[in-house]
């Protein structure tokens, strides 16, 4: 095949925005996504409501509508499907990037598609928009690899009438604990800090705190998981070791970018923040021809970049790529 002007790794909202801006400039681009389109949003809880308004999630100049003031996960998925279709983006879903060889202007991207077949794409430029939701922060305790331990939460129904431990005290943990409680699970919440995080949404925080105060949800603060066993979890608490009866563990401990992948393709990371070194104007990395978009620009500070601001990276990058290709721009 003839070389692509750019290959975009990741088809989340930021990756789609990059694809749109490249397409607007007449550049030939393919998006490679190891899951489905906007895979991270798909993995959000089924009934999640965004904390932001629809217009702040918009890309490509297409309006997003919502039945209420804040859009739901389902509305966002529908919107981004419509965006991809409207711009006729060439998206290869369920295809994993294995390695990126070559150099600026002459890259070769090696992938494996959903059938297990290897593929190679020649590309002049590379855009990495891989997000961070695919690599959970592990507890690193014995038993974490048991089948009953999950790092993602979708909905409460499967946990009805079971003993469920939720680890964490930010938004995802608080929402999961409440939904599980309302759906008939017996919930225990564990957090190494002294209480529910101050960053929890203002209508969620008093609700979860009241459930804890009333004893409807048991909470262990200043506590950590020591070991996960088949039918219980051992905790280190201020009162000593405690064994809690348990059927399932939801470790809502956050996520991080795939730093190993970034380093494997020559992206230099700050040793303390893991923030990759990029040009402030173009977002080109220290590996010439490789651009970074979205939350991975922030390294471990994943709370700095969201859809609301990461969506603008596409225009910066597309402009830089167009300037750098002969006969374009």
Summarize this structure briefly:
By secondary structure, this protein is α/β, with parallel strands linked by helices. It has helices spanning 13-24, 39-42, 73-86, 171-182, 205-214, 259-264, 307-310, 313-324, and strands spanning 4-9, 29-32, 91-92, 96-103, 106-112, 118-128, 135-136, 149-150, 163-167, 186-191, 218-221, 224-228, 232-237, 240-245, 248-251, 255-256, 290-292. It has two domains: 4-134 and 255-324, FAD/NAD(P)-binding domain, CATH 3.50.50.60; 138-251, FAD/NAD(P)-binding domain.
Structural notes for this entry:
The protein is α/β, with parallel strands linked by helices. The protein folds into 2 domains: 4-134 and 255-324, FAD/NAD(P)-binding domain (3-Layer(bba) Sandwich), CATH 3.50.50; 138-251, FAD/NAD(P)-binding domain (3-Layer(bba) Sandwich), CATH 3.50.50.60. The protein is 22% helix and 25% strand. It contains 8 helices and 17 strands. The chain has helices at residues 13-24, 39-42, 73-86, 171-182, 205-214, 259-264, 307-310, 313-324, and strands at residues 4-9, 29-32, 91-92, 96-103, 106-112, 118-128, 135-136, 149-150, 163-167, 186-191, 218-221, 224-228, 232-237, 240-245, 248-251, 255-256, 290-292. The strands form 4 sheets. Strands 1, 2, 3, 4, 5, 6 and 17 form a 7-stranded mixed sheet that branches. A hairpin with a 2-residue loop joins strand 4 and strand 5 (106-112). Helix 1 (13-24) packs parallel to helix 8.
């Amino acid at each position: 095949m003839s070389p692509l002007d750019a290959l975009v790794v990741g088809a989340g909202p930021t990756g789609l925005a990059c694809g749109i801006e490249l397409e607007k400039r007449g550049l030939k681009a393919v998006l490679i996504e190891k899951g489905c389109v906007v895979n991270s949003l798909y993995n959000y809880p089924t009934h999640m409501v965004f904390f932001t308004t629809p217009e702040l999630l918009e890309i490509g100049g297409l309006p997003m509508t919502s039945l209420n003031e804040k859009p739901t996960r389902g509305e966002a998925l529908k919107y981004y499907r419509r965006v991809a279709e409207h711009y006729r983006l060439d998206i290869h879903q369920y295809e994993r990037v294995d390695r990126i060889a070559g150099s600026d202007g002459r890259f070769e991207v090696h992938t494996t598609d959903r059938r297990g077949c290897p593929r190679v794409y020649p590309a002049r430029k590379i855009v990495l928009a891989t997000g961070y939701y695919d690599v959970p922060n592990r507890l690193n305790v014995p038993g974490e690899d048991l089948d009953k331990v999950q790092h993602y939460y979708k909905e409460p129904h499967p946990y009805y009438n079971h003993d469920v431990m939720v680890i964490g005290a930010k938004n995802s943990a608080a929402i999961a604990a409440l939904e599980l409680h309302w759906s008939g699970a017996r919930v225990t919440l564990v957090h190494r800090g002294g209480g529910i995080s101050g960053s929890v949404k203002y209508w969620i925080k008093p609700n979860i705190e009241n459930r804890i105060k009333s004893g409807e949800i048991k909470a262990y603060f200043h506590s950590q998981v020591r070991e996960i066993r088949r039918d219980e979890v051992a905790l280190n608490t201020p009162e000593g070791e405690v064994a809690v009866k348990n059927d399932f563990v939801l470790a809502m401990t956050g996520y991080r970018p795939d730093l190993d992948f970034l380093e494997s393709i020559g992206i230099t990371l700050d040793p303390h923040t893991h923030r990759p070194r990029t040009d402030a104007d173009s977002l080109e990395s220290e590996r010439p021809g490789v651009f970074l978009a979205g939350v991975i620009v922030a390294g471990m500070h994943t709370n700095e970049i969201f859809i609301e601001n990461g969506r603008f990276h596409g225009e910066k990058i597309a402009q830089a790529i167009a300037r750098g290709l002969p006969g374009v721009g």
